[in-house]
Amino acid sequence: MLDQKTKLTAVSAPVVDDPNSGLHYARRGSITNDELSNEQIEGYDAERMRARTLLTAEEEKKLLRKVDWHLMTLCSVMFLLKNIDADNVSNARIMNKGTKSNIMTQLGMSANEYNLVTTMYYIPYIIAEAPSNLLLKRLLPSRWQSRIMITWGIALACHAAVKNKEGLSRLACFQASYYKCATGIDRTRCQYACCISVIDILGNLSGIFSGILAFAFSHLDGAHGLSGWQWLFLVEAIVTIVFGISLIWILPDFPPQAKWLTEKEKAFIQARLPGNAPQSSELNFRWREIVDALKDVRLWLFTLIWALFTIGTSGVRFYQPTVIANLGFTDIASAQLLNLPISIFSIIVIGVTGAFADNGRLPRPLYPLSFLCVILICYGVLYAYPNTGGVFAATVIGNGVTSAWYPMMWPWRVQTTSKATGSAFSIGFVNSYGQIGGAIGPHLFRSQYAPHYGISFGIAMGFVSACILATSLTWYLTRKTERDTRKLKVARVKAQNRGETVLDDVVDKDLKKARSSDKSAETRA
């Protein structure tokens, strides 16, 4: 609910109805009058719409830059640390390979046993993600996110003390789950691909940092009685824990709690939030929204897309350092640095496609579908294994495009959710159970398929092909909401240039007929 203490000192201004687009506009820096109703604008809320006109276009730009600086930076650093920590599993596999201090040699593990450990890392993540999202309605995001970072860091530090494969397996089972920060202010930005792209760009810097760190710590092997992989886990754990503790004080929760926002800015930010964003005033669980989400076929389709994609690509990403090491370019330690081109290419692709996707000119599903086709072609090259250079090029392009797939999918997924509890549950559900590929994918690359893993890449191609079909079907079912979202995005940009704001929000019409039937049945009952 908007802060009642906000002083609305602007003058009243009429609302302009555009008959061509069916949208309603109001002059920025003014207050809309009360002549509109929910019958004229579906989902209209007079208080929210008045707050949307409080700031001029220039003031809004300054406000969003302020939000980016205070919040998006923190979310990006959290994502970066999470990715660096997660990359340790694959990087440690080849650190000091061929010596007694290699993690697999030191712990007495076979390649297939190491794959099983990677599966165990995903079990708590899959189970805990959806409940964790719902707990944000009870606990402040800063406290809960800090808890996640600290417990993740502690579990990571414990890796350095592991003495055998049983200890590593048990520790993997208790590895804390992690998910992207989704505070109330963050949701004002996550509806835009370019802003998700910023987080993913910084997150994908992990490929650069983790490769450099693995290279550096491999040369610390034996220092103070610790192997290189133990130094890797320990140092990165300490950084994660320290940053997690700091989040208690530096991560803002909801707009009303942000001390660096004025009352007018707080009201504007909350009015700008989509209807399915978390609100500080809404702390109660609404189980009906969870039931409705589970009855929504789109929830299961997006979960299927995520599962097929992660199964088809996570194994390849996990084995990326190993594949590069087996190409014979250089020694094992220097092979870590050959991961850098992949990360750099990923950052470029994410940045460019994020900027293009945000203009709303092309349907959003076209981007992930295009990426899937590129991945399929690259996997075909990896399956054929023509030569060393071709394999490395396919690895760079395939894994780079794989990283860019996520920031293109999330805005599309978010725009099909509804209401706060239902949205939190749906996003967590898809992101957790869709990550089943992280548990299954590495097992496609079993030791008997080495060194070229032709069978493994062939199976991965099958899952990517199925993902293309599932994405196409989902696009068909969500075409109305996706089209309206693009239409509204373009209208808002044009309105901003005219010094106006759009009062309409996107109304979910994909399953409108089914919902009308359900309501009629309830009425008759």
TrEMBL record:
Molecular function GO labels = transmembrane transporter activity
Q: Which GO cellular component terms are attached?
A: membrane
Any transmembrane segments, and where?
Answer: 192-217, 229-251, 297-318, 338-357, 366-385, 391-408, 420-441, 453-477
Q: Which domain of life is it from?
A: Eukaryota
Key words, A-Z: Membrane, Transmembrane, Transmembrane helix, Transport
What Pfam families would the database entry show? MFS_1 (PF07690)
Q: Primary place of residence?
A: membrane
Provide the topology term for how it sits in the membrane: Multi-pass membrane protein
Q: Where in the cell is it found?
A: Membrane
- List, alphabetically, the PANTHER family matched: PERMEASE-RELATED, TRANSPORTER, PUTATIVE (AFU_ORTHOLOGUE AFUA_6G08340)-RELATED
- Can you name this protein? Pantothenate transporter
Query: Which organism is the protein's source?
Result: Cucurbitaria berberidis CBS 394.84
